[in-house]
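User: For my dataset I need records formatted as: sequence, then structure tokens, nothing else. Please produce one.
Assistant:
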Amino acid sequence: MDFITNINVWFYFIAYIVGGIPFGLILAKIFAKTNIKEAGSKSIGATNVLRVVKEKDPVLAKKLAVATIILDALKGMIVILIAKAIGLSFATQWAIAVLAVLGHCFSPFLKFEGGKGIATGVGVLLIMLPVETVLALIAWAITAKVTKISSLSSLTGLFVLLVSSFVIHPQIPHIKSHAPIILIAAIVVYKHIPNIIRLIKKEEKAAV
């Protein structure tokens, strides 16, 4: 009974469910009449929205891709901000961050398939580790500008975030552990395994 009435448990559930909302898929279906799960990389993220919708309408593709990034980032941020507002612990907030990314990558609405977790990860980490996340975004932007490869840019940003989190915060405030960050990174890397294989084989296509 305590499990059912525990507010932390409810927030964990909400974080996973909200994180699982496939905004890229929804936006592409509504505004471009396109199912991005059946085209391109079949991912629900902004990169695939841009890639697939661009074939029909380049201007619309850019708008939908930007909207997808914003909404995917916000869905984790909003739950954490509400948790903060009502005074839930930092440990709970970190768990919410992990579950929001997990929900995006393994959506309950898509038979536990989903996106790569980058935008949702950026959203939650902007709240939890703002300095490290800004450094990661700078690294992402530079890599994207130079290589034009979305996956490489994302993985570079993730690497910078991980390294900087240990440098800036040898012990993460309040929880004294890097475990949530490592979990988020592990989820993102797992979802990028096909991209990593293509990068090693030099077969990954420019998409930024």
